[in-house]
Design brief:
CATH superfamily of one domain: Tetratricopeptide repeat domain
Structural class: mainly alpha
Strand content: under 5%
CATH topology of one domain: Serine Threonine Protein Phosphatase 5, Tetratricopeptide repeat
Largest sheet: none
CATH class of one domain: Mainly Alpha
Radius of gyration: 25 Å
Low-confidence stretches: 7-19
Number of helices: 14
Distance between the termini: 97 Å
Shape: elongated
Length: 236
């Protein structure tokens, strides 16, 4: 009889333990759903993860990122704030919150977050790049270019950083620097259509119509509708 009761209790307890889905399992399920762009299920998984563990900073951070993806920027800020409150030096959450603030046109707040992210990890290129874009939106092109210099110094293959630096150099009157950076983007990524268009625009504005049109035709051949329209307008 005692053996029967003990066996029954073992079965009940084992069944109960297996029925409990852990916070980590919910979080991993959310990651999978996020990768499949099933954001509703991902958020549901994260709610369950947080119900299991109310101090799950990574779950709050992922909630923030997913809400950003679906355009719920204020909710994204709310969840990222929670993640940062639990973990004040949470690089991804702080950098991510800066991106959301920039989307909301809170460039001062965004710059503050990107600066904090840089303080936490000064050799990662993305916060410098993100801060540069925020500064450029405030018309501080010189400071933006300096941040892009830093970003590139930590990742010499960062095509987006070269592209943005080329754009702001052109606006700032550094023609040679803009041309050099656009060419570097194309060297790094021959499919980067915007770089062909940017370089073509810079050349065309300085009277170099023939090479500009050649670049626009390349971009058009790579599928750029804008480049195709410019070829028709400027090169025929």
């Amino acid at each position: 009889m005692k053996k029967t009761v003990a066996l029954l209790l073992f079965i009940i307890c084992t069944a109960f333990s297996y029925s409990q889905i852990s916070a980590l399992e919910y979080y991993n399920s959310a990651l999978i759903n996020d990768s499949q762009k099933d954001y509703s299920d991902a958020l549901h998984d994260l709610d369950n993860a947080i119900n299991q563990n109310p101090n799950y900073d990574s779950a709050y951070c992922l909630q923030g990122f997913i809400n950003y993806k679906i355009g719920e920027y204020k909710l994204a800020i709310k969840f990222l704030d929670k993640a940062i409150k639990l973990k004040p030096d949470y690089f991804d959450a702080i950098n991510g919150r800066g991106i959301v603030k920039a989307q909301l046109k809170d460039y001062v707040g965004a710059i503050k977050d990107f600066t904090k992210a840089i303080e936490i990890d000064p050799v990662k290129p993305k916060p410098y790049y993100n801060r540069a874009l925020a500064k450029a939106h405030m018309d501080d092109y010189e400071a933006a270019i300096k941040d892009l210099d830093k970003s590139i110094s930590y990742d010499a293959q960062y095509a987006n950083a070269y592209y943005s630096r080329a754009f702001w150099k052109d606006i700032s009157g550094d023609y040679a620097g803009a041309v050099s950076d656009y060419k570097k983007v194309i060297e790094l990524d021959s499919t980067y259509r915007e770089a062909y268009i940017g370089l073509a625009t810079t050349l065309y504005q300085h009277g170099e119509k023939t090479p500009a049109c050649e670049l626009l035709k390349i971009a058009a051949d790579k599928g750029s509708i804008m480049a195709d329209e410019l070829v028709t307008k400027l090169c025929n």
